[in-house]
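Pilot study result, target chain (369 residues):
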Amino acid sequence: MNFSIKYETVEEKEKLIFFPIPEDAVVSGNSTCGKGSSESSLLVVTFGTGHSVSFSFSRNSSVYYAEKLGVAYNLGDKHIFPDARRNDVSFSSESTGINAQVNTTYVCMTAQEIQMANATVVISAARIEAYVPGSDYSKEETVCEADKTTSTTTVPTTVTPTQPPTPKDPVSIKYNVTSSNGTCLLAQMGLQLNLTYITKYNKTGVEIINIDSNATASGFCESTSVGLSLKSERTSLWLFFSMNETSKKSYLSGVSVHINPFPEAQGGALNVTNTSLNYLQATLGKSFKCSSKQILQVSPVFALDVFKAQVQAFTVQNGKFGEAEECLLDQNNMLIPIIVGAALAGLVLIVLIAYLIGRKRSHAGYQTI
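Predicted structure:
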C-alpha cells in the first residue's frame, strides 16, 4: 500500500509527497469485529507519528463490502512533512468498490488507485477477508475483475518483445533530501525505467521511460532509513536507503514504482516493489560513485538503469559529497587499459630481446681475417 499526500507548505505552496506503509505498522485496538449480518467491522492500522489507515466493512447474507477507506495523516510529523504549514491531523476517506462473497477471500494482485480530496492510496497484491469464520483466510477466493483479465493470459514464450525506439540516456539530475537535522541524502544521477509487460494482445512489450527534471522530488529522513520520491504525471518512483550499523555501510535497500495509466499493458497499470535489495553500497561518511551505466534488477519485469551516479545517504556534511568510493565497473574499466598497456609493453620487450639475441648470433657466425 502506497500513499501520495498533497499538503500546503510554509511558503503557501502545494507539495505532493509519496510514501509506502512501513513494515512496522500495527493493528490498532480501535479495530472491531462484526459478527452478525447487520454488524459493521472496522480495521484500523497505525504507523509512524500519528498516521493511520482504516477500512470499514459491512455485509448482507451473501456479500461483504469494504465500504470506506480512510487515511489520517499527521502534518506535524516533520520526517514526512518537514515544511508543512499546519501541524494538525487531516483525514480523507472514499469508497473502495471492494466486495466479495461471504466466506471467501478477496484477492487482487492488480494495483487499484483510490483517490480522495488530498490523498491517493494505491493498493496492490491485496488479500482481504472480513467476517472470517475461522482464524485464517478462507480457501475459496473472490478474484477482482482486473485480475480475471490478467489471469486468463498465458505469457508467450516464442514471441520476441516489441522493442520501442531506445530513448537517449537520461540527464543527470541532482537530488537532496533534507530534514531539520540537515541533509540525509545527496544524489547526482540519471534514472531510466526499463519495463517488460504483457500487452492487451497477448504479446510481450518493452517500455523505457527516462526520469526527467519535471518530476517532483520529495522524501523523508529517519535514523536508519532514507527515502527519495520522484513523482510525475504518470510515474511514481520511490528509492529507499538503509544503514547496516555493523558494517557501517549505506545501501539502496528498496525500489517501488507505480505507473498509471499504462494503457498498453493488461490491467492498465503497473506496480512493482522490492524492499530486499542491496545496491549502491558505500561506507558511511563516503559517497558511492559510478560513471558506468548500472542495471539494477528490481524484479523479473522491471530494472532501474542508473547513469553517472554519485550517491551519499545519512552522513552528509555541509551538503557536499564525501570521499568517493568507485564502483567495480569503473575499476574494471580503468584496469583494462592498464592490462592492455602492460601486455603491449611486454610484447615490445620480448621483440627487443629477440632482436638482440638474433643480432648477437649473427655476429658469432663470422671470423676475423
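One observation from the pilot: Residues 328-364 form the longest helix (37 residues). A full batch analysis is planned for the follow-on phase.
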